[in-house]
Design goal:
By secondary structure, the protein is an alpha+beta fold. It has helices at residues 3-17, 21-54, 193-196, and strands at 75-77, 87-93, 101-108, 114-120, 125-131, 133-142, 157-161, 165-167, 174-176, 187-190. It is elongated, with a radius of gyration of 29 Å.
């Protein structure tokens, strides 16, 4: 074996002992992906409950001028509301710990027609008369009020109450917005466009 052969074998042995740059980057790429996925999952586990509770934050300017939120117990009655039918009552309560104001929309369960909207400020408990019937209930909440068209602006949080609510002469349903893991009123988050459509 000559000197050239010896040098060739030496270089070949050294190259086999250390991984190439391509192999090193291939080893790091799955680790980077795993770290990125872990960070993303951690951020989502923090962000999703906050968005569900407070709505999507607005990073752009306000939707319009901030208006004074209506008094608790005020209602907005649509032309579809038949107030000549027998009357029941509907209760809306917002604990003082919940700083948001609420607008509760009652729609006819069979036709989907909007009947009335009930306003309730943070810390208030109101009972208002409603026509007898079966209702699908949507609740919009937020801090800054921009009016019926834009509700609480970009941070409006809208939820649909899953079961229909039935208002009879003897039974007036209602909602108490006390957020608890063991609460007895299931809801699901909806886009703001579904509220007044």
């Amino acid at each position: 074996m000559g000197i050239a052969d010896r040098d060739y074998m030496y270089d070949r042995t050294r190259a086999a002992d250390r991984p190439s740059r391509v192999m090193q980057s291939e080893i790091r790429r799955p680790q980077r992906r795993a770290i990125a996925v872990s960070v993303l999952v951690a951020l989502l586990s923090i962000a999703v409950p906050l968005i569900n509770q407070y709505g999507i934050p607005s990073f752009a300017g306000p939707s319009g001028p901030i208006l004074s939120f209506p008094s608790s117990g005020d209602v907005f009655i649509t032309a579809s509301a038949d107030l000549r039918r027998g009357q029941s009552r509907f209760r809306v309560a917002v604990p003082a710990a919940d700083r948001r104001n609420y607008v509760v929309l009652l729609t006819a369960a069979d036709t989907g027609e909007r009947i009335m909207a009930i306003y309730c400020r943070s810390g208030d408990d109101v009972v208002v008369p409603v026509p007898i019937g079966r209702y699908r209930v949507l609740a919009a909440s937020g801090l800054d009020w921009y009016g019926l068209h834009d509700l609480f602006g970009r941070s409006t949080h809208v939820e649909e109450v899953i079961p229909e609510m039935v208002a009879t002469v003897l039974n007036g349903p209602g909602i108490v917005f006390r957020r608890r893991p063991d609460g007895n009123l299931p809801t699901q988050t909806m886009p703001k466009s579904h509220f007044f459509g």
